[in-house]
Amino acid sequence: MSAKILALCGSPRAGSNTQAYLEAALGVLKECGAETELVELRGKTIRSCQACYACWRKGDGVCQIQGDDFRPVFEKMLAADALIVGSPVHYSAVHPDLWSVLVRAGFPGMAGHPHSAPRPFARKIGGPITVARRAGQNFALAQLLLWFNINGFIVPGSIYWTVGVARSAGDAVKDTEGVDTAIQFAKNVAWLLEKTR
Predict the structure, then answer these.
(1) Torsions phi, psi of 90, nearest 5?
(2) CB under 8 Å, gap of 24 or more: what pairs does 26-29 form?
(3) DSSP state, 145?
(4) Mean pLDDT across the stretch 74-102?
(5) Which of 59, 60, 85, 145 stands 20 to 30 A from 28 (CA)?
(6) Pairing verdict, β 125-132 and 4-9
């Protein structure tokens, strides 16, 4: 399979459980022949959307905020055929660093009439994985699914919701159902890429 798969890890921790679930998914896709890349947002400076609408006025579909690490991440998102994002759950929500990337990546493409130009992520394939100690995954998962939906992604399912249960470093491997869910999700991404290329 000739495809580029990008995974964004929204965890601020090195060697995080979120990264472990993403790596399980990417391992499947790599075995299928895809080119895979994991980008950690940890250590990057990503400013939040300023609601300045400069992206709409310029009309090029790109956030106009300068001076942080957003642009290289965004360019990788555009180049990818499929996007998987992973986030730890904090207060039943997506980690702010990941959310800042996603809002700034998606909002410029909403400028003007919805049929005037193709959105940058329209008909790409992707989906989220969320990780929490005990609860809150579904709220964060829904938040991310809504982002994928409004940006025109095609989101495949799995054997369960793509959520993981983990707290301390290394706990992800103990959640065999969560890992299996991430793996089956990745298999469905690979199948869908084959069908749509």
Answers:
(1) -120, 120
(2) 26/84, 26/186, 27/183, 27/186, 28/183, 28/186, 28/187, 28/190, 29/3, 29/5, 29/82, 29/186, 29/189, 29/190
(3) H
(4) 97
(5) 145
(6) unpaired
* Nearest by Cα to 77 from 148, 11, 183: 148
Residue type, 41: L
Smallest Cα–Cα separation from 11: which of 3, 2, 1, 22?
22
Q: How far apart are CA 120 and CA 60, in angstroms?
A: 10
Q: What is the pLDDT of residue 165?
A: 96
Helix axis angle for 17-31 and 176-196, nearest 10°, is 40
Structural domains in the chain, sorted by start: 4-196 (3.40.50.360)
For the chain, what is the mean pLDDT?
94
Question: Is pLDDT of 113 > 80?
Answer: no
Compute CA 123 distance to the chain's CA centroid, rounded to the nearest angstrom.
15
For the CA atoms of 54, 58, 62, 63, the dihedral, rounded to the nearest 10 degrees, stands at: -10
Token pair for 153: 């992604």
- CA–CA separation, 193 and 197 (whole Å): 6
Closest CA to 34 of 1, 7, 8, 6: 1
Global pTM value: 0.95
165, two tokens = 């249960």
What digits encode the pLDDT tens for the residues 18-33?
999 999 999 999 999 9
